[in-house]
Design a protein that fits this description.
- With about 130 residues, this protein is mostly beta strands.
- The protein contains one helix and eleven strands.
- Strands 2, 4, 5, 6, 9, 10 and 11 form a seven-stranded mixed beta sheet that branches. The chain has a four-stranded antiparallel beta sheet with strand order 1-3-8-7, with no helix packed on it.
- The longest helix has 7 residues.
């Protein structure tokens, strides 16, 4: 199992980036994918989730309305479109594989680090003020 993130960079406040998470070596379409971020001095936190069959999605409150997750199973890739970026979005962003989770679970638990197994190496996003 290998996940490779790309698309990070330096961007001004209000700008946008699209992150990609490319999967290699496994049946990608059978796995849910989560996006996480890790900022200096903070714990890694869940940002977004996309399921397998119906493509159900979930967003943490602090990115809802600004970020959009999508997947292209034919390309073994999940995307995270990030709009209206803020300095507090600065972090290393990771994707990871996990189990399918229902909407109720996600609403109560959120996108939890411990629910995901295989991780990519991360891509740095820096938003300047």
């Amino acid at each position: 199992v290998q996940l490779v993130e790309s698309g990070g960079g330096l961007i001004h406040t209000g700008g946008f980036l699209r992150l990609s998470c490319a999967a290699f070596g496994f049946a990608f379409n059978y796995f849910a994918i989560g996006w996480f971020r890790h900022a200096p001095g903070k714990e890694r936190e869940g940002v977004s989730y996309i399921g397998t069959s119906d493509g159900s999605t979930y967003y943490a409150d602090h990115v809802k309305g600004r970020f959009t997750i999508s997947r292209d199973n034919a390309k073994n890739t999940v995307y995270l479109q990030m709009n209206r970026l803020k300095p507090e979005d600065t972090a290393v962003y990771y994707c990871a594989t996990g189990r399918e989770r229902g909407g109720n679970y996600l609403r109560v638990k959120g996108v939890r680090v411990n629910d995901f197994d295989s991780w990519g190496q991360g891509t740095q996003v820096t938003v300047s003020s």
